[in-house]
């Protein structure tokens, strides 16, 4: 691992540890800038990208931290009895929703490299069991570049606004292919670039931990998915999400605004990208 990659890992881990502990202020963070409660704003964001009110109402308290950029659970069309793996599971938001969809005969596994996030998710396990009547969710400590999961053991891999934090994205896609069963599928919502960011934006730590400076071009993502051996890949850009975050004065986009050329907006450069594919 190069020194630069290690620096990125440590920056991301430190920042998301602070988010888990409620020490970072952001639009949907512990101290709101949008005029409302943290939970209300996180719910507003989730509903704007396709989560329904029932899914959100059944979540353990604090599982939704407003860190999503899409709805990979819906894209995955989960079925009862499937094993689903969430990369960068955070407080357990998508894992708890997925657990209800795969039912008692299925399994939902979350992997996260931040111990504080893992502790937050595990504290919510009891509430999930009580509300759902299910005992089918677990959380594992690990890096998405080196998943603590056996080969060909997972039906579905999901991830929500996480892969762009990785300094080795091709390795992440290879790991996805490794852990999927033959015929298994992947559903990812992430941040991608429509064109390269201005130089100043690339240097912004705030942009990095918001997934933006770490993002790559849509065509680069397509190449990584193909090179990992995944098939039937589809890519859908959702720039409206970016416009919404800019309208809500998200701190990442406030930081980036100073670096964009005049008469441009964030969605001219950045998009939310839904990726679906399967293993042969």
């Amino acid at each position: 691992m190069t020194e630069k990659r290690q620096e990125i890992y440590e920056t991301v881990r430190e920042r998301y540890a602070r988010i888990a502990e409620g020490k970072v202020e952001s639009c949907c963070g512990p101290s709101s800038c949008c005029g409302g409660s943290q939970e209300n704003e996180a719910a507003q964001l989730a509903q704007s990208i396709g989560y329904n009110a029932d899914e959100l109402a059944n979540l353990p308290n604090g599982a939704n931290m407003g860190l999503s950029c899409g709805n990979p659970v819906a894209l995955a069309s989960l079925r009862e009895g499937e094993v689903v793996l969430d990369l960068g599971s955070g407080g357990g938001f998508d894992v708890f929703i997925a657990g209800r969809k795969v039912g008692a005969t299925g399994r939902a596994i979350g992997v996260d490299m931040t111990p504080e996030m893992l502790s937050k998710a595990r504290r919510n396990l009891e509430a999930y069991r009580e509300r759902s009547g299910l005992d089918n969710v677990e959380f594992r400590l690990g890096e998405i570049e080196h998943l603590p999961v056996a080969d060909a053991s997972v039906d579905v891999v999901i991830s929500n606004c996480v892969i762009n934090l990785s300094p080795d994205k091709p390795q992440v896609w290879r790991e996805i292919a490794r852990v999927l069963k033959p015929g298994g599928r992947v559903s990812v919502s992430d941040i991608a670039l429509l064109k390269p960011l201005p130089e100043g934006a690339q240097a912004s730590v705030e942009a990095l931990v918001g997934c933006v400076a770490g993002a790559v071009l849509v065509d680069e993502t397509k190449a990584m998915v193909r090179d990992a051996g995944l098939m039937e890949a589809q890519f859908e850009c959702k720039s409206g999400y970016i416009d919404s975050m800019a309208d809500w004065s998200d701190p990442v986009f406030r930081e980036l605004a100073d670096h964009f050329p005049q008469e441009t907006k964030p969605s001219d450069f950045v998009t939310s990208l839904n990726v679906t594919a399967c293993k042969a």
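The domain at 3-279 is CATH 3.40.50.150 (Rossmann fold). The chain is about 40% helix and 20% strand.
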